[in-house]
Amino acid sequence: MAQNGTNNQARLEKLQDVIRGKRKVLIVTHNHPDPDALAAAFALKYLLQSKWKVGSIVAASGVVGRAENRAMIRHLKIDLRALSEININNFSVIALVDTQPGAGNNSLPRSIIPDIVIDHHVPLRAKTQLAKYYDIRTDYGSTSTILAEYLRDAGIVEIDRKVATALLYGIRSDTRDLGRGVSPKDVDACMHFYQRVLWRLLSQIEHPEVPRDYLSMLEKAISNARLYKDVVTLDLGHVEHLEIIAEMADLIVRTEGVKWVLSLGEFVGDVYFSLRTKKRRGSADRIAQKLVAGLGTGGGHEMLAGGKVPSDEKPHHSHQELTEILVARFLKAIKRKDLKAENLLSYSRQAAGPRKPEAGETHGEEKKPGS
Ligand SMILES: [Mn+2]
User: What is the CATH number of domain 2-206?
Assistant: First the structure.
């Protein structure tokens, strides 16, 4: 960390140059912000205010639908505004976090080059390099980690406890509890603010009440899922909120014997997908880009990625046709082209029956009742 110290100080000074003397900063995240995007924006706002006394507003397009993310906003009192209700001309500095200009997943008008871009997604976009300040670390598990380092290097010791909680959740959520696409820097960042985390609040965020229709959504997702040997594709059809597509991918990739999941759905006319793999060097980001070549935008990391095909891009294709194209491209990209589809639920039922406990595992009857 020490050899990086000067580097980090230089970064902070450069950032300071961009915002010095400015009155108000607009911080924009990707559409339908996830915990990492929310935490990074929340932390940047806090940094600007506490270090340089510059006010800012956090805004995004889309809907926050996932129960955890809504709980995060509520419990941590994150003031998230709708980008459509913001007059961008009122701001002298514009920052993008957890996304980049041209990535296709944010609603900053194309004509605007942001002043600040902070992100961890592959690829580094050409337009990002036009920003006065950009910090893209594709080896990091989360954008929250970058912000945590800024706060640490800015010498803010008694960091606001809600910000610390947000950052920890942002890092954990993007790295699946520090187990996926994680770098030592992500672990360091978590350790650094550990003492400031509000644990009870974090638990309430991670285990929120889910809406009544959540279970029926689960049922629909799983009963439609198709299995190709070790690959699952599932089409959720029309979804009420976007995050359910990623949530299902995360759930199903945990299934024994499943190495890849492509989860798709339609939201406000556009087709979205999430890609997950258990392979640590899965190049999911590159596969996502292959899927949308000539159709839309995609990107991500080795083990998780996503993308979007806007309806105006291929207006003569139905949702069904687009989904079929994406699935066919996906199966081809991971060399599972000629396999016959099986129903995921039938595969699951085949495994039903008594399972031998593994070494060291407690037998059912020895468990305390209710455990
Ligand atoms: Mn992220």
Answer: 3.90.1640.10
